[in-house]
Specification:
Order of helices and strands: HHHHHHHH
Number of helices: 8
Largest sheet: none
Distance between the termini: 59 Å
Radius of gyration: 22 Å
Number of strands: 0
Helix content: over 70%
Shape: elongated
């Protein structure tokens, strides 16, 4: 019994040490990113290429996910509101839920699953095959060309995807409303616009800049520092998804609390 306890404590200690080492490495990596992003040359064409590639290839999956989320959340919420005689609040309730939380977070998690793993695997492959070392020898700054461009692209493409997902989710919600209630499109959109305030839309979309940065920096860090051949590439890919998803949820909690604290002051 005692040996099992010691073994458990030892494993826990190693995992905690590895986690804090990862956080420390990410912090230093982020400082380097901030330093390099302002130093010329600016790889505008490379950034544009990554934004198009990451954005266009992610549109179908986030669109389908957003549509289903809007449909399901409306069908789940309708019986609850009907129980209290508040069915008229269904469009507004769904609109606020999607705009403030469901749209941004679900989009960020889907984006992390597809993009962060891809960046980790791509840069990890370049690291273990010594392509990054070859770039350094040839006088090219691999950090700026490989890391800065991808992180910049993920940071600015995710808010665009979020707006798209919110729109698709609201359409899915309307279809669900039509299935359970006799409601016109004009009345539905009017209630959504009336219920969703400026203070709901702006913070919801704005925090996706942070989520996009997390997705890019985590995947780039783990891939750029991959070791142990193909095994390291696989580890970088899978760990990127887990860490970026966890950090998205943690920072979402922090940003929601910060928004609730700051918005009344700004008003």
């Amino acid at each position: 019994m005692a040996s099992r306890l010691y073994k458990f404590l030892d494993v826990t200690e190693k995992r905690l040490q590895s986690f804090f080492e990862l956080l420390a490495g990410l912090t230093l990596f982020s400082f380097r990113f901030v330093k390099e992003v302002f130093v010329p040359p600016y790889e505008v064409e490379e950034i544009r290429k990554h934004m198009i590639e990451l954005g266009m290839k992610t549109l179908p999956i986030v669109g389908v996910t957003g549509f289903i989320i809007g449909l399901v959340i409306t069908m789940q919420l309708q019986p609850v509101l009907q129980r209290f005689g508040a069915e008229a609040f269904l469009p507004g309730s769904v609109g606020i839920s999607i705009v403030r939380e469901l749209g941004p977070v679900i989009t960020a998690l889907i984006f992390a699953g597809r993009v962060s793993s891809g960046i980790g695997a791509e840069l990890g492959s370049m690291r273990v095959t010594e392509q990054i070392d070859a770039m350094e020898v040839s006088g090219v700054n691999p950090f700026k060309f490989l890391v800065v461009t991808r992180v910049f692209a993920t940071t600015f493409i995710l808010p665009i995807l979020t707006v798209y997902v919110i729109f698709i989710a609201l359409i899915g919600a309307y279809i669900a409303v039509v299935l359970v209630q006799n409601m016109t499109w004009e009345y539905y959109t009017g209630r959504v616009i009336f219920s969703v305030e400026f203070g709901d839309a702006i913070p919801g979309v704005a925090k996706t800049f942070v989520f996009g940065y997390i997705v890019g920096i985590v995947g780039a860090y783990l891939g750029y520092n991959a070791k142990n051949g193909t095994e390291g590439v696989g580890k970088a890919s899978t760990t990127s998804v887990v860490v970026s998803s966890l950090l998205i949820l943690v920072f979402d909690m922090i940003l929601v609390k910060l928004t609730l604290w700051l918005w009344p002051i700004a008003k």
